[in-house]
Amino acid sequence: MDTINVILNGKNVQAKPGESILDLATRNGYSIPTLCHDPRLEPFSSCFVCVVHVEKMRGLQPSCSTKVTEGMIIDTEREDVKKSRKMALELLLSNHYADCVGPCKETCPANVDVQGYISLIEKGLYSEAIGLIKDRNPLPAICGRVCVRPCELACRRNLLEENNGVGIDYLKRFAADQDLKSEKHYRPDVAPATGKSVAVIGAGPGGLSAAYWLAQKGHQVDIYEAMPHAGGWLRYGIPEYRLPNDLIDKEISTITELGVNIFTGKKLGENVSYKEIKEKYLATILTIGSQKGALVGVEGEDADGVFSGIDFLKNMEATGQRYNFKGKKIVVVGGGNTAMDCCRTSRRCGSEEVYVVYRRTEAEMPANPIEIHESKLEGVNYMFLTAPVKILKDENGKLKSMVCQKMELGEPDASGRRRPVPVEGSEFEIECDYILAAIGQKTDVNFINDINEFSENGQLKITKWGDIEADKDTLVTGIPSVFAAGDGVTGPATAIAAIAQAKLAVHSCEQYLNGLPIVPPEKEFYSRKENFRMQEKQEYAGKFMHQLREEMPVLDPKDRNNFTEVELGYASEKVAKHETARCLECGCGALYTCDLKKHATEYNANQIHYSGCFNDHLIDFSHPYIEIDKNKCILCGRCIRICKEVVGASALGFVNRGFETYVAPSMGMSLKDTKCESCGQCISTCPTGAMSENKLFKPGPVKTELFKTICNYCSVGCELEVHHRGGFVFGIQGAKGMVNQGGNLCNSGRFGYQYMNDGSRLLSPRVKENGSWKDISWNEAFEIISKNIASVQPSENAFTVGARLSNEEQYYIQKIARAGVKTNNISSFHYMERGKGYSENSMENVSFSDFQRARAIWVLSPEMIKSNGVAGFAIQVARNKSEIPVTLIVEGDNHLMDHKADRIIAVKSKYAFIKAMNHYYLTSGKQNALFINGRTEGFEEYKSALLKENYTSLIAASGLAQDMVEQLADEFNNVAESVMVYAEAGTSSNCAMEITNLMMITGKLGKTASGVVSLKSKNNSQGLRDNGICPNTAPGGRKLVEANPDLEKLWNVTGLSDETDFSIKQRLKDGAIKNLLIFGEDPLGTAVNANEVNELLSKTPFIVVADYFMTPTAEAASLVLPLAFPFETGGTYTNTQRVIQRYEAHMKPKTGKCNIDLLNGLAEKLGLISFRSTDEIFLEFASLLPAQKEELFSFNATDSDNPRNMFVFGADNLVLRHQKQVAELMKK
Predict the structure, then answer these.
(1) CATH no., domain 848-1015
(2) What CATH number was assigned to the domain covering residues 1-77?
(3) Cis bond leading into 701, ω under 30°?
(4) Closest Cα partner for 69 from 5, 1, 2?
(5) What is the 3-state secondary structure (H, E, C) of 1186-1218?
(6) pTM for the whole thing?
């Protein structure tokens, strides 16, 4: 039966035999939540989140493990199904002692991603940090100076012995200042114009923020401001020594540059009527603030000399005139930030006696403690537990004094602070010249009649407190097109609270403009440790390094007799970065990828529904790449299963039973002491972030962008997802690529991205002058190179090309050498002196997907788990899932893969073992004559040469008994679907050649699920052959002397060199090479014998190295060229199975030139026509590749083993630096 008829949610659908309900539903567009399922693994059915209803089956069924049957009736969306899923989620959450986000973000009224922007600041990504902040707060430079910092109070760094939270506001200010002074400050993307317009009343923090977000959405926004300048209370209520006006203007300009208009001197209800607003705009947002001052509230407050603190500050800013308080005694009543602004401003206006009268103690003061501290330094006096009773005035009504009384603290009031209670008989009198009342503000709503008179749909109402009435969840007023936000709704609050309300008002306004129902934003689920218990100091004791807070540099108090800004900002990036290190990273790194959080949000799960016991585990940071937080673990077993079923390491397991169960490294060891391959497959499958990357930088969480590319380490050809922001790579994940279809990655692919962020990268050409490096321009570099090339004979120039480079780059370099310089001195250090056994060993490789169709797999290279890890995973999957036996041939003391094999054969020499098998086949007549006669050439010559060798000697050299060799030979020959796998890195060239001979003798070469897989060392090792990186081979693999006429025609040149019979190594050794251009290779750094290679290069007077970094070879060069990264150029790689895969350019080259432009610059100097794109190069070199046809395979005899390897890691510094890092980290 090809298909199965099933009814899914009332629809007739076709299912595949053996298909699970989950796969069927997914294929038909129905989303079923699951936590324990990974398509790479067998179903486990542990989470019970994926349950569905199946008619005639008892209870709900896990969709991941239930297979479809004919006539099955399935319902995935019934209410009982949803309730069951919610219950399963809540049970899991009841033991999920972890934070989704840090308390800093949770306590910020605007919900700014504090941890995220701290991570970006740590990397110097200031504009990115500002972009993240502006998503929730468009005024970071302003708030970085005046925010009341609830985030810092909630910061868990306060629980450490330092007793001081992270300097969040200082960091925000630093990033904002850096961004504003940069040549290209952050500017958000703006949607295309919608043709819709909105009026915003009031240009304070709420109004400016609302305008910013509305403009981003493409709407035309006009702000109407009553005062002469925009800024609202930010300008008219906060003195310049705290918040300079020019800073306000700069930040406002980042809003007006989006197309926002601000009309000042326009007051609603006076010189602007709602009638005009209603006719011109589709919607209105009222952000009027609460700037009406209140007096002291006692008898005599009408005395001349008693002012509202609000009016005092506002009038001074509005008029530009400073009060003259010289010789005057000032009393400020109140304990908030306005009181601090009044008392500190009074000192700056000349008063030498300023008193703050506050009815509670200093501990209860709502003002920022820093403001209180600074005011004391400036000479302000405090009278705590003191309250005004009456104000006395003289016969002219002028202020004379204020009568006060002492207070004591009683029981807490509604604010949570202890209520001040009068002390009987404690009255006393304070003589003063002025009283500034800073005890409250009110909302001025004198425009309400104007609005209601012209409103045709509803009425604007006022609350009993005199504020605008608006729905608390949507901020829509009694008029559907009018929204309100900020202090005008809440009463006097803070700038950040007004900004938060503006975000909500914009959300609702946008729904209104688009004709949608006005509903609150969807509530996002957050797991919280506080849902289990309050966080106490003892929980954090001894777990973090002691690091004192970087305090804010300030003006010396003696220099503060003016309105110059007091806080100076962090002095340097070093200081800011040091402060970022204090962040404890409370929030989860998997915030944006966690499936548990996603499903909990979708099903509105309640974490404390099943409250009770919970587990509290220490986080395990002992592995350098993998961080284990068992508190986040939901026991889905995916990490255990992928490590066993796919990787084969079995490094993880369940410990204990029942409620005490947890996942841990096997045998109670540290993970790095197990068989763990540090591949991170456990991270890739974890649905919650319990397994995460132990990053070498501050991780975030940060929302990233991604692009796909091909791994440039080994030859498997895995597709990667590069997660980045602002040019910084935050991590790598496996994509479901053409080759790595499950998205699997090895250590290098997943963790080898550190070079992408390395600040020591070469960014400009350099020339060595008198032993020192000097930066030069690209044109200067090309001039120097071309002059050196022209100054010698063509044959005295040589080019070497790395296997890391793309096909396009490799091809172009050989074209420059042959057509531009007229030399065939073109080679690669990668294969120098390795022999020719690797030249054709990939022509008929078995595909990795065919491993599961094989009947036996033979592995000759245990080191492949390090050099070509994902190929090893494919073997393990075949072994585990299809029960295909794996035979491991081990040479010497190499036991890296013993635990992944069903049988281990220890030999002295792989070469002798394979050759003995071949000898046995031919002497016993067991060769596949049909295949040999029809598909090969050179057999008789090979047979004659082989049979001249002593069979007994070969057996002895193999290290096995003769009967064992023959038994193994028969076994391999008799099982048609046998696959032999080896890595070039640990296999000699002649051994590789004999393996190819063996495949032809047994007739397995090129067969489905049968034959050989030769794993090359580098991502484009195969490209070296295909692109003619060899003196005697043309692109496409033809002999150069035969191909030259065609190449001259294709390249439109004459005089190509026919000289091919030579060794470049010998020419280097003889000093015959005067100019050596090395592209993407590091022969000195990767040399097995550094002295030998150093001597080889020392005879060449002029060496050019093109690479990413100043490698040892680059240091020894005369001139260096910076190479662009692959994702800055684009191109193709050919993997070990000759699969050509394309990757695109996704970023602008930091070097200023992509690699094709670099080569174009050199080619043009040498008289060649440049290429316009990588596509153009691809079409040219692809035209030279041989057409698909039935080719004869060639036998090649060898006389002895040749394990010569001059370089490790394919002569690639990139692999070298990563492997060094791995070794160093594993030692810690």
Answers:
(1) 3.40.228.10
(2) 3.10.20.740
(3) yes
(4) 5
(5) CCCCCCCEECCCCCCCCCCCCECHHHCHHHHHH
(6) 0.94
Q: Judging by beta carbons within 10 Å of its beta carbon (0-12, 13-18, 19+), is residue 519 exposed, middle or buried?
A: exposed
- Contact at 8 Å (CB) between 992 and 911? no
CATH topology of domain 292-440: FAD/NAD(P)-binding domain (3.50.50)
Compute the residue count for the chain.
1228
Beta strands in 531-634 (DSSP E): 626-628
Residue that the structure tokens 């030579």 belong to: 1062
Q: Are 1088 and 1209 in contact (CB under 8 A)?
A: no
DSSP state of 1186: P
Name the band, by pLDDT with cuts 50, 70 and 90, for residue 554: very high
Do 674 and 665 form a contact (C-beta atoms < 8 A)?
A: yes
DSSP code for 432: -
pLDDT digits (tens, 9 = 90+) for 840-865: 888 899 999 999 999 999 999 999 99
Domains 705-757 and 766-833+1022-1186 are alike in CATH topology: no
Give CA–CA dist 728/739, Å, rounded: 27
What is the tens place of the pLDDT at every residue in 706-737? 999 999 999 999 999 999 999 999 999 999 99
How do strand 292-293 and strand 306-308 relate by DSSP bridges?
Answer: unpaired
Which pLDDT belongs to residue 1?
59
Whole-number pLDDT of residue 415: 76
Contact 734, 722 (CB under 8 A): no
Specify the CATH architecture of the domain 766-833+1022-1186: 3-Layer(aba) Sandwich (3.40)
d(CA 381, CA 379): 6
Q: For residues 135 and 123, what is the distance between their CA atoms, to the nearest angstrom? A: 19
Fold exhibited by the domain 103-186+545-580 = Fumarate Reductase Iron-sulfur Protein; Chain B, domain 2 (1.10.1060)
Distances, alpha carbon 213 to alpha carbons 141, 146, 188, 937, in Å: 17, 22, 10, 73
The pair of three-digit structure tokens given for residue 544, joined into one six-digit string: 């973090």
Q: Which of 403-417, 584-598, 785-799 is the least confident region? A: 403-417
Domain ranges of the chain: 1-77, 103-186+545-580, 197-290+443-513, 292-440, 705-757, 766-833+1022-1186, 848-1015
Tens of pLDDT, residue by residue over 890-929, are 998 888 899 999 999 999 999 999 999 999 999 999 999 9
Yes or no: say if 547 and 581 are a contact pair by the CB < 8 Å rule.
yes
Mean pLDDT of 1209-1218: 97
Beta-sheet strands, E only, within 618-699: 626-628, 652-655, 662-665, 691-693
Give the list of residues 6+ apart from residue 349 with CB closer than 8 angstroms, or none: 322, 323, 324, 325, 326
CATH architecture entry for 197-290+443-513:
3-Layer(bba) Sandwich (3.50)
Query: What tokens were used for 246?
Result: 């020019």
pLDDT tops 90 at residue 2: no
pLDDT score of 1190 = 60
Helices (H), 975-1116: 989-1001, 1021-1026, 1040-1051, 1064-1069, 1090-1098, 1112-1115
The rounded mean pLDDT for the chain is 96
CB contact at 8 A, 765 and 780: yes
Average pLDDT over every residue of 362-386: 95
Distance CA 1117, CA 1104 (A): 6
CATH code for 705-757? 2.20.25.90
Q: What confidence tens digit (pLDDT) does each residue in 143-152 have?
A: 999 999 999 9
How far apart are alpha carbons 79 and 47 in whole angstroms?
A: 19
Q: What's the pLDDT band for 73 if we cut at 50, 70, 90?
A: very high
Beta strands in 478-524 (DSSP E): 482-484
Q: Three-state DSSP class for 1078?
A: strand
CA distance 130 to 127: 5
The whole-number average pLDDT for the span 534-545 is: 92
Structure tokens at 784: 């120097």
Query: Under a CB-based contact definition with an 8 Å cutoff, are residues 1145 and 1128 in contact?
Result: yes
